[in-house]
Write a structure and sequence with these properties.
Layout lengths: L7 E9 L3 E6 L4 E5 L15 E6 L9 E8 L2 E4 L5 H10 L11 E8 L3 E8 L5 E9 L11 E3 L5 H15 L3 E8 L7 E3 L5 H13 L2 E9 L4 E7 L4
Parallel strand pairs: 9-11, 10-12, 11-13
Antiparallel strand pairs: 1-2, 1-4, 2-3, 4-5, 5-6, 7-8, 8-9, 13-14
Helix pairs in contact: 2-3
Length: about 240
């Protein structure tokens, strides 16, 4: 996924009210950018960090910038949660995600389950289906050695619900896959942050036992583009 316009570098002052971030641009101007991430952003919102913003294409939009990337140490991290579904779809279509090949069609945001929408629905002409849910992973609390990226970064009852709904699809005779997309280029392992949300850990274990497939993939990131680049073994 290439950014359609050049990103604008700056320095993070603070993130606040969940969806706002103040950033100092290289010109010295301070702007307020939209933060498209409702999570806690634990480990990826350190004031003083280099960040990159995308300019709004709609001239009437109140906030003229969207926060896209942050540099943590030597790592680039993508914090915009509106991108993972498109990134995973692109990686399925170009063959990067090997586990999700061989389907005749790919659809996004399809209604299913109990008043929900699946992120990606893969189908074959014979009627077989694969339900794919995508979770954005940014947290890495330990930057030493081979420490893993972790999910979730806060309590997520909604995330546990998604795991149950995927389990229901398996019970109905379909494939169901949870894709943890690690939007950082410094993580080669992935695990659950069970200390942050034990209930999500329990839901994960139950879904795995029910036949839901768990896969994790990492990204390569730059101010020019983000791409899914490598498989990461989930540690559970």
């Amino acid at each position: 996924m290439e950014f359609p316009d050049p990103l604008i570098p700056g320095t993070l002052i603070k993130r606040y009210k969940r969806f706002l971030a103040d950033v100092t641009l290289e010109s010295g101007e301070t702007v307020t950018a939209h933060c498209a991430n409702s999570g806690s952003m634990l480990s990826v919102c350190e004031p003083g960090s280099p960040v990159w913003l995308s300019p709004a294409r709609n001239p009437d939009r109140k906030l003229k910038f969207t926060w896209e990337l942050i540099q943590i140490g030597d790592a680039m991290v993508g914090i915009n949660t509106s991108h993972p579904n498109a990134l995973v779809s692109e990686a399925i279509e170009n063959g990067t995600i090997r586990e999700l090949q061989g389907f005749d069609s790919l659809k996004r945001e399809v209604k299913y389950g109990k008043n929900s929408r699946i992120d990606i629905l893969l189908e074959n002409e014979d009627g077989s289906r694969c339900y794919v849910e995508v979770k954005n992973v940014t947290m890495r609390r330990d930057l030493t050695g081979g420490a893993p990226a972790e999910f979730p970064d806060g309590v997520t009852a909604r995330g546990a619900k998604h795991l149950q709904e995927l389990s229901d699809m398996v019970a109905d005779g379909h494939r169901a896959v949870m894709v943890y997309l690690v939007q950082r280029d410094d993580a080669n392992a992935f695990t659950l942050a069970r200390d942050i949300d034990p209930d999500y850990g329990t839901a994960y274990d139950q879904a795995l036992s029910a036949g839901v497939e768990m896969v994790a993939y990492g990204c390569q990131l730059s101010p020019q583009e983000i791409s899914v680049s490598r498989r990461i073994e989930p540690l559970g």
